[in-house]
């Protein structure tokens, strides 16, 4: 049973990492190559869609890691799972304090109502997101190592 939980948790978090990685290194670079009006609309649409899904995904990931850490307390690799959990908590805190406020503003923007500093806000969100991606990649890597 623990083996199934470990694999399921790793897959769920691996998929989350993949989505966040693709936003940082595929989706946003594609959007940024489009005309400004399309960038604003695309980022707003992405902010609405992912802004609805990702909080559930992050919290589910945290719960799964916590269950893994408790259920596998006597097994090797638990320390790595706990550290991965701490990293996921850091990513959630970063999200709430740094990324969500920008995303909440950006998800309502249109070419007509965008603020003058929209590019700076989008760039700030991107920089914070790169750091968050690095944190969750590290957490995922620790979970994979804990499987070994």
Explain what this protein looks like in three dimensions.
Helix 1 packs antiparallel against helix 2 (36-71), helix 2 runs antiparallel to helix 3 and helix 3 (78-106) packs antiparallel against helix 4. The two termini are 17 Å apart. The longest helix has 36 residues, at 36-71. The chain has four helices and no strands. The chain has helices spanning 2-32, 36-71, 78-106, 118-147. It is an all-alpha fold. The chain is elongated and about 60 Å long.
Give a quick summary of the entry:
The chain has 148 residues and is mainly alpha-helical.
Secondary-structure map with pairings?
Layout: H1 2-32, H2 36-71, H3 78-106, H4 118-147
Helix pairs in contact: 1-2, 1-4, 2-3, 3-4
Distance between the termini: 17 Å
Biggest sheet overview: none
Mass-distribution shape = elongated
Put simply, the count of helices is: 4
Please report which band the strand proportion falls in: under 5%, 5-15%, 15-25%, 25-35%, 35-45% or over 45%.
Answer: under 5%
The poorly predicted ranges are none
What's the total number of strands? 0
Q: Indicate the percent of residues in helices.
A: over 70%
Order of helices and strands: HHHH
Decide which structural class fits the backbone: mainly alpha
Average per-residue pLDDT, rounded, comes to 96
Oligomer status: single chain
- Measured on Cα atoms, how large is the radius of gyration? 17 Å
Keywords: Membrane, Transmembrane, Transmembrane helix
Transmembrane segments: 12-34, 55-73, 79-100, 129-147
Protein name: DUF1772 domain-containing protein
InterPro entries: Anthrone_oxy
């Amino acid at each position: 049973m623990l083996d199934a939980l470990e694999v399921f948790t790793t897959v769920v978090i691996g998929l989350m990492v993949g989505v966040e990685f693709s936003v940082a290194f595929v989706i946003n670079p594609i959007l940024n190559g489009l005309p400004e009006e399309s960038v604003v609309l695309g980022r707003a649409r992405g902010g609405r869609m992912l802004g609805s899904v990702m909080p559930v995904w992050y919290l589910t990931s945290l719960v799964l890691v916590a269950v893994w850490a408790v259920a596998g307390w006597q097994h090797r690799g638990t320390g790595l799972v706990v550290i991965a959990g701490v990293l996921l908590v850091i990513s959630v805190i970063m999200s709430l304090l740094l990324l969500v406020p920008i995303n909440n503003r950006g998800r309502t923007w249109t070419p007509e109502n965008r603020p003058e500093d929209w590019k700076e806000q989008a760039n700030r969100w991107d920089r914070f997101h790169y750091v968050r991606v690095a944190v969750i990649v590290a957490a995922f890597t620790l979970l994979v190592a804990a499987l070994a």
